[in-house]
Task: inverse folding
């Protein structure tokens, strides 16, 4: 057993890195669905735009500039999507899905008209271009930094939602929009800010993920699919579930690619199927169903 862990140590740590990268996208999707009950299938395009921002700016202005620009782009995208979805807020998830997937096609077309159909690479920051030893095996500094960023974001989101006045206001809106409005909460403003924040998380994830998985016109669809799987496994609307689900899928992907590469892609969906058979509401979906 010790020999197995020693041999696959890098694979296991890489699974954590991949999982937390997925979480950065899935957290925004979960935030929007869990707090606003909006199924946003344009979320992958937000990641796509973030990755192109990294490609365009990281080599020239640095990752700091790229991150700031991506957050601004994400906020703008989220604000626009929120405005477009308001008339459909009470018409069910199918109408929301159709509208946002249509918006995703339009935005993806804009991206390809600007940046083309080619595959691009993004180099990590110079100070993270080396590697560190883990049980005698080299592991990229940048992937280790991705783990740190994912943990910080997860911790910050948990604190904001449970320990701050802003988090309590959001929870009040989630619990009962009418009562929250009656006591003076600007429900539309809160909803808009949550949508913008969730979308900005996706564009931020695009910047962080660009040096790891590259940039191409289909990357948004791939990331959205994984984010949806993670959201379903964790339980719809559960940030804690998204975190655990992302780690599970990250490990499944990493170990699957290393041990059984021929069926690695299938294992992701097999994992989701097993979880839903055992626990149809997802790992942490009980509270959401009760609500």
Result:
């Amino acid at each position: 057993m010790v020999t197995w862990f020693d041999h696959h140590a890098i694979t296991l740590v890489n699974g954590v890195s991949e999982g937390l990268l997925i979480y950065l996208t899935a957290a925004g999707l979960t935030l929007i669905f869990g707090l606003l009950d909006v199924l946003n299938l344009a979320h992958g395009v937000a990641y796509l735009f973030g990755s192109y921002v990294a490609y365009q700016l990281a080599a020239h202005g640095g990752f700091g500039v790229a991150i700031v620009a991506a957050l601004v782009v994400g906020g703008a995208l989220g604000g626009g999507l929120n405005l477009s979805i308001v008339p459909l807020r009470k018409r069910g998830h199918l109408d929301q899905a159709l509208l946002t997937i249509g918006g995703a096609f339009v935005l993806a077309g804009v991206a390809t008209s600007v940046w083309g159909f080619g595959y691009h690479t993004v180099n990590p920051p110079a100070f993270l271009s080396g590697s560190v030893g883990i049980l005698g095996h080299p592991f990229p500094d940048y992937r280790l930094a991705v783990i740190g960023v994912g943990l910080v974001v997860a911790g910050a989101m948990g604190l904001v939602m449970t320990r701050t006045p802003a988090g309590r206001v959001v929870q009040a809106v989630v619990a009962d929009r009418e009562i929250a409005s009656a006591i003076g909460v600007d429900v539309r403003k809160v909803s808009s800010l949550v949508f913008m924040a969730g979308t900005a998380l996706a564009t931020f994830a695009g910047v962080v993920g660009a040096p790891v998985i590259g940039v191409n016109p289909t990357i948004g669809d791939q990331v959205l699919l994984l984010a949806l799987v993670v959201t379903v496994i964790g339980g719809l609307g559960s940030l804690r579930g998204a975190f655990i689900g992302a780690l599970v899928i990250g490990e499944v992907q990493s170990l699957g690619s290393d041990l059984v590469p021929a069926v690695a892609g299938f294992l992701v969906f097999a994992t989701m199927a097993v979880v839903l058979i055992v626990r149809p509401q997802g790992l942490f979906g009980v509270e959401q169903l009760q609500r």
